[in-house]
Amino acid sequence: MRSLNGKGQNALAWVFGILGVLALMFIISKHYKNAISLEDTYINILEKREVLSQIRINLLKSVEMEKDAVMALTDEESQKFADQSSAASSEVDVNLKQLHILIDKAPLQDERKFIGEFDSCWTEFRKLDQTILELAVQNTNLKAASLSVEQGSEAIGRFEHALEEVGKFASGTPDEGGIEKSVCRAITAGLKIYNLHSPHIAEASDEKMDLIEAQMKAEEGEVSRSLDELSRYNVEGGKEPLVQAITAFTDFMAVTEKVIKLSRQNSNIKSLELSLGRKRKITAQCDEVLASFQEAVQSRNFKATR
User: Fold this and answer.
1) CATH number, domain with residue 158
2) Mutual orientation of helices 153-170 and 239-265 as an angle, nearest 10°?
3) Please, what are the averages of pLDDT over each run of 10 residues along the chain (306 residues)?
4) Residue 253 domain flag
């Protein structure tokens, strides 16, 4: 076999040189792509950490504002806190969309499992939150209490004063004893109805509210019988205060009916029970999933930077 001349050797060397350059370029390109991929993954992990942190912050803010809405003493305060709670929950919705996008770009081990668990938990959280906030802003128990203390107290006060005036006109008359007994029975029964407002407003059970209302009805009957007895007496000057007493009691029972209607809705009691019961459990569940998710992402971040 003939040896290559100088020109052939140069050509061969040139070919090998080109191949070497191409091989080097391939290695550099592959390394560069791997470096970019590693950098993208690292950035992705950092973004996931930030989004998870924001989800947790907004979730806890939503919970705190919801509790404030439930405990607020006025419609204005309840609505203000309810709006703030809803706004924080909406931020969680935005954060969740961002997290889904980041996971779709670079899904790491168990991330789809974590996001699926949180999505389910968050869906239940949102439904329950909506129910609680709708109840909280109604404030029916607070409104019933306010109505009782203000209008109820005023009406029963007029009733009591008017009957006391009837008793004064009867003083010294032959019917004084009978009138005093009827006045006393009417006032006592009326005050019993008024005193039953508070336990009715505070009661959560429909069955127990039924019993309280039955007591009210019985006392209302006692007042009616006593007023009928008083109307049969012919005491000079006593007719006008008796009419005033009847009018006052009619007003009082109209207020009582409104108190019962508001109390029956039990919006404050129901929202408080849900907030301290089911809502507390679902919040703990959501936060536990987030904590596990954050821990997993945090550990991957340290691996990527070693």
Assistant:
1) 1.20.120
2) 160
3) 55 55 47 45 84 95 96 93 97 95 83 93 96 95 96 98 92 88 97 98 96 98 96 85 97 98 96 94 95 84 44
4) yes
